[in-house]
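Per your request, structure below.
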């Protein structure tokens, strides 16, 4: 078996084991309604995690995404509720701003050879500050178009439905997997993460690809802001704190190497579902606080980092024989 698939298989096994354990402990956990809620409640994380997968595959990191979620959500809510814009126009502005913000970070990283960690950390503070400049408080969204989007759903059975947020969750991963594995852009990302120098020697557009990767991450973060407004019915400049860390954890647990060049968007899907399953199980139990979610994710993350370390070092030991 190819070693590159091992983290993906381990992640799938962990997800299956967690779901079986939770289903055996809590009655009704395996119902269609609960499964549908796993997607509905985590559309925001899913959007960010897909963008983060592209960034990490390219060998970078993006710490600004949680703040971009807050900034775009409050921009949408303010434009719709206080300036009477149509939601589609407000959403378009938010997506363009998020994409442009991400591209600007990528341009700085590429042009001046700056560490992605520091550039996107600066972006984290800048976007969060701009969110509070737009509005200091949460703003509710009251518009018939938004109400229609929130109520739109597809029936899964007598008691379960697939909400608009859940459909967004699934659509994001389908598009992400297609782009990563079936397009020239996706192949360029893998080449960039594997070795920027080799990619440059092969004639690949390294500079354009790196800028585009961060633009995609910004777009996905803005899309997560849209998902947040659909889920909560409001925009909030304080939301999304720590969301970038949840996304990174989901990507790494999904089998993507932090050094870049190896990983799958499907693995990120599994990582997000692991996060969602643990969170849902804690809600079912009712006796454990949310801190146990962090403990569980931290333990899993450490385990997968050690697994990645083993996989990257094992070939080197064999090569000397």
């Amino acid at each position: 078996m190819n070693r590159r698939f091992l983290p993906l298989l381990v992640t799938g096994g962990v997800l299956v084991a967690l779901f079986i354990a939770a289903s055996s402990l809590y009655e009704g956990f395996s119902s269609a309604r609960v499964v549908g809620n796993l997607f509905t409640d985590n559309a925001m994380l899913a959007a960010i995690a897909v963008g983060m997968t592209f960034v990490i595959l390219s060998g970078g990191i993006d710490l600004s995404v949680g703040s971009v979620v807050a900034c775009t959500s409050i921009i949408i809510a303010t434009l719709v509720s206080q300036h009477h814009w149509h939601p589609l126009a407000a959403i378009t502005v938010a997506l363009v701003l998020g994409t442009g913000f991400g591209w600007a970070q990528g341009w700085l990283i590429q042009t001046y050879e700056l560490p992605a960690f520091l550039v996107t950390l600066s972006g984290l503070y800048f976007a969060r500050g701009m969110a509070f400049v737009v509005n200091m408080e949460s703003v509710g969204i009251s518009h018939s178009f938004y109400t229609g989007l929130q109520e739109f759903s597809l029936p899964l059975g007598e008691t379960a439905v697939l909400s608009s947020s859940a459909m967004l969750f699934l659509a994001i991963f389908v598009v992400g997997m297609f782009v990563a594995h079936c397009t020239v852009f996706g192949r360029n990302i893998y080449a960039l993460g594997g070795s920027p120098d080799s990619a440059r020697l092969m004639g690949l557009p390294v500079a354009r690809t790196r800028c585009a990767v961060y633009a995609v991450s910004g777009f996905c973060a803005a899309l997560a802001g849209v998902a947040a407004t659909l889920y909560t019915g409001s925009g909030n400049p304080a939301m999304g704190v720590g969301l970038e860390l949840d996304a990174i954890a989901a990507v790494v647990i999904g089998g993507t190497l932090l050094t870049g060049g190896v990983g799958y968007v499907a693995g990120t899907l599994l990582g997000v579902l692991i996060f969602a399953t643990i969170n849902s199980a804690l809600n079912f139990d009712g006796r454990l606080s949310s801190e146990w979610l962090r403990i569980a994710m931290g333990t899993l993350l450490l385990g997968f980092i050690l697994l990645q370390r083993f996989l990257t070092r094992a070939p080197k030991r064999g090569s000397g024989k």
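The first helix runs from residue 6 to 25.

Regards,
D.
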